[in-house]
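Quick illustration, no need to memorize.
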Amino acid sequence: MFGDECSSKILDFAEQQEYFSDRKLEIRAYDDATCLPPVFCGWEQNPVSFGGVVDSSLNYIANSKSTGLFHNYTKQDNGVEYNSRMYGSYDFDNSIYCNETVLYGGLFLQQWGFALLESVARLWPIVQNPEKYKDIKIVFLSMFKECNLSGSYLQLLKLIGIKESQIMFITKPTKFKSLIIPDVCTEGGIFYTKEYKLLIERIISSAMSKESKIKTPKKIYLSRRNWLQDRDIGEDKIEKFFNKNGFVSISPEQYSVSDQINLLQNAEHIACAVSSISHSLIFAKEGIKVTIINKINVYNYLQFLADDIQKLDVIYIDAYRTLFPINLGVGPFLFDVNKNLLNYAKDNKMKMPDKLGLDREDFCRYIEALFDKVEDLSDERLYLIHDLYKNNYKSGVCFYSKRELMFKKYFHKIMWKLSFGKKKFHLEKYVKYKMELKKIEEEYYQ
């Protein structure tokens, strides 16, 4: 681990967790059960949405929920709080009837990390008994009114052994003749079972059995450079450092899922920033060397479980600057070629980065993107992130009103130096926020 004391404590906490579970999974069938598509409540709410399955008497089947992991550090307990992405029934006037026996796949979000670590969690019976389930319809729920799987998500299910014709998304309450609900074999960041491990092995073996003509370098850097450029700012400087040391840049989105797995299976050392890309390491060869770049001081607990599945030899490097709390999956993130990266290079006898420190242009882009993101956040969401950061950051950071957050410690001084006489756009933004903060502070302290 190359980072500060707080990072080391979090990593120690994660490494002490037992992710593998030997629990016995069950498969239950319900006659005349009704699937309820999610009804969104709000990202700050628990649950985030209502939905799942009710039985013939309209009683909610708790096993149909979707559970998420929210790290909520408090002064009393450095523990983890479990929350629900989807839980509970709601009133509905009528339902569609389907005279079929189907398998309940649960909530499917088309976000790669979620798909890998949670959306496939009920599909293990298809691997255990492919003949029995080869033609059965699999019912998925979506947070969106219309949903069709394509691209990488469809390829992923096909590698499990699921045909496109078996996939069914419901958009209205639907009653089925019989609904089969398997227990989940994994919950992201919480646990996984032998069934999940077998599921991953099936995906890998299916992918490796396909003919592939791609080159498979031994050292690869999984790049997001061609993906969301206004979110992962400055990552190109980190990538250049690894390229200088023999790592070949790979943009996973440019490859089929089978070819991605082929690359991961043949690599001996993989480097990447923590993100959905790093969750794909569940398909890497067991025990290989991995270097993961942290880009924010709130840790991605899904990744720790992913590391454990293939017993990866992982080194984490804190190579970022954070001036304001932002959501883990939202950004923007500012990468920094800092002393942690330098120490990593020295310890591993690698060529040094071309330039140490932040790039001025990257910093300006980060400030501009940051203002836009903060503007979009609701007060409730901002308060939630504030509490998470406050208890997860180095000791000694002084917080004022929740709305001000880190402005008094960082932004006033930095923005003034950045804007004064140089960037009219940023100066106008700075003045606007200064006025808003003053107004909020007056309301807060009245």
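The domain at 5-17+212-358 is CATH 3.40.50 (Rossmann fold).
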